[in-house]
Structures are given as structure tokens and as C-alpha cells.
Design goal:
Elements (H helix, E strand, L loop, with lengths): L25 H12 L5 E5 L3 H6 L10 E4 L5 H14 L6 E7 L1 H5 L2 H10 L4 E6 L35 H6 L5 E5 L4 H12 L5 E6 L3 H5 L5 H10 L6 E4 L2 E4 L1 H9 L5 H5 L10 H24 L1
Parallel strand pairs: 1-2, 1-3, 3-4, 4-6, 5-6
Antiparallel strand pairs: 5-7, 7-8
Helix pairs in contact: 1-7, 3-5
Length: about 300
């Protein structure tokens, strides 16, 4: 089979020039590729108060060619569930309902509504764009922020706890499809959104979306930073279908080669880790290696 490249993605754009997102926004790039995998003419998007709201702009002007419903911070999954019920009532189930929320609106504030929707098996796709903090309101700590990261609410000692394992929480609901992705690997992201679109029931995708101002790296390094998250193993690319985990894209290559970069390589380019000590780097490396081994074992079991 011929090797695919990013140029093989559909050429039509559904986000027009002039969005209000920051330069080199990992979320905007994620959304751009995700919309290419959907049918924007038959897609309804629900978003909470977030960077996504900023990207969509101020009513009635928007650069995004898709119908979007703005919801309260805690209600993204509940609002999406209402859209699904409304479409069913008018017999328009040919539409896809997609919820897009950040880690704050997923891991923290929105977890109750999300859990309820997943427990009911709501026929929708939920995409968490994880930029590891409340970036829209001043880079505050979320439960997705990594250990040893400095945020505006952990300015002195940095964050003490490791990142919440949201995927395990989602997986406990036994939904048919779960996947992780990165905007630095657009074909993998595109394929997973395309796959999720064609599955009925609840589907959950988690995309690690690097944030230059929140993480503290130059705009020009967005793609490089996204690749580093995968190549050091702190963000692993995989999909889970009916309980079976399969590594994908660059993570699969790293598993086959048995090599990956170090946490020291990863943190040195980010000002949010400016206070990290050697002991903290070692602890983060140990945590990353343990998770990597768990993913390898599940992948090898098939």
C-alpha cells in the first residue's frame, strides 16, 4: 500500500482565515483536521465556555463552517445529549453530534455530565482537546496538568500530582470506541475521527493539543512539541475497540523499535517546567515508563 502523507487529506477547509485563536494553536489545528473527517453539513457541535468559544467568534460572525451550540461550562455532554434526542425525535439521525471540550470542561467541570451520557450510551462523539490547563482564563491548573508544571494557581511549588487518567474513567463505561490522537500526526487524527463517525453509541477521543502560551514554547515549535509528547511516551497514540487496545502511528513504531526520547528532552523546551528538579524529572520518567509498559502489554495481548 502506498505511503500516505498529510497532503492526502481532503483539501476543502471548514475553518476560514481570521479565527480568534492564538497563533500556532494546537486546538485550532486539531479542529481543522477533525472537521475534514466529518460532514460539516450534517454535523452539530456543542462546546462549553473555552478556547473553542473564542475560536468560533462572536455571534453572528464566525470563521467556522459548521453549526455550533455554545453551552455552560459543565453541560457540554448534557447539551450534546439533548441534540441527539432532538434529532431522533424529528427523525434526522443522519446527523453527527460532536462535543468538543477542553480538559477543564472534561476532566473537572464536565465529568458528571460526560459520565451520565456515556452510561446511557448516548449516540455521540466526545472530543477532549487536552491542553493541560485552563488556558482560556489564565493558564490555571487542571487535573490534566502534569506533575512539576508551574501554572498560575501553582506558581511557587508547581503541581504535585500526576495527571488524572481520564481514559480509564471513560473505559469503565464500556463504550464501543476510545482513541487518543495528536495534531502533529494529522493522518492518525483524521482516521480516528472518521472511524468514530461511523460507529453508533458513545465514542470518546482525547487529543493532546500543545498550547504555546500555556506551556511556554515558541509558536514555531508547535508540531515539534506535539511530536515530542508522543516520542517520549508521555502521550501514547492508540485506540480501544470493544476493550481491545491497539497502538497506532508513531507510538506503534516506537514500540517496534524499542526506543523513545526522555522526559528530560521533553521538559527542557517549556517554561512551565522551569522549576523542575532532577528528582522530579526522574519521578515523571518513572511514571511515564510504567504507563508505557502497561500500554505495551495490552497491545501485545491483542
Amino acid at each position: 500500500m502506498a505511503t500516505r502523507a498529510a497532503r492526502d487529506l481532503p483539501t476543502e477547509e471548514f475553518i476560514l482565515p481570521g479565527s480568534r485563536s492564538c497563533a500556532a494553536c494546537g486546538l485550532m489545528l486539531t479542529y481543522r483536521h477533525a472537521l475534514k473527517a466529518l460532514d460539516p453539513g450534517k454535523t452539530l457541535v456543542a462546546v462549553p465556555a473555552s478556547c473553542m468559544t473564542v475560536l468560533h467568534g462572536v455571534y453572528p460572525i464566525t470563521p467556522v463552517k459548521v453549526t455550533c451550540i455554545n453551552t455552560p461550562f459543565a453541560a457540554t455532554a448534557a447539551s450534546a445529549s439533548g441534540l441527539v434526542a432532538g434529532l431522533k425525535a424529528i427523525k434526522r439521525e443522519d446527523y453527527t453530534v460532536v462535543a468538543f471540550a477542553g480538559d477543564g470542561g472534561t476532566y473537572d467541570i464536565g465529568i458528571q455530565a460526560l459520565s451520565g451520557a456515556l452510561e446511557r450510551g448516548t449516540n455521540f462523539m466526545y472530543v477532549c482537546y487536552d491542553n493541560e490547563g485552563y488556558m482560556n482564563t489564565g493558564t490555571q491548573r487542571s487535573s490534566a496538568s502534569p506533575a512539576a508544571a508551574v501554572t498560575s494557581t501553582t506558581p511557587i511549588l508547581a503541581k504535585a500530582q500526576h495527571k488524572k487518567d481520564m481514559i480509564r474513567i471513560v473505559e469503565a463505561h464500556r463504550i464501543p470506541y476510545i482513541a487518543t490522537a495528536s495534531p502533529s500526526f494529522p493522518l492518525d487524527l483524521f482516521d480516528k475521527v472518521k472511524t468514530a463517525k461511523d460507529i453508533r453509541g458513545s465514542r470518546y477521543l482525547e487529543v493532546l493539543a500543545p498550547c504555546p502560551p500555556g506551556w511556554g514554547f515558541p509558536n514555531k515549535d508547535l508540531i515539534k512539541m506535539g511530536k515530542l509528547t508522543v516520542e517520549c511516551g508521555i502521550h501514547v497514540l492508540y485506540e480501544i475497540r470493544e476493550g481491545r487496545l491497539r497502538l497506532t502511528s508513531r507510538s506503534l513504531v516506537l514500540a517496534e523499535k524499542g526506543r523513545k526520547k526522555t522526559i528530560a528532552d521533553y521538559v527542557k523546551g517549556q517554561t512551565r517546567f522551569k522549576k523542575i528538579s532532577k528528582d522530579q524529572i526522574d519521578a515523571l520518567q518513572q511514571w511515564t515508563d510504567q504507563r508505557w509498559e502497561e500500554f505495551l502489554q495490552r497491545h501485545n495481548r491483542g
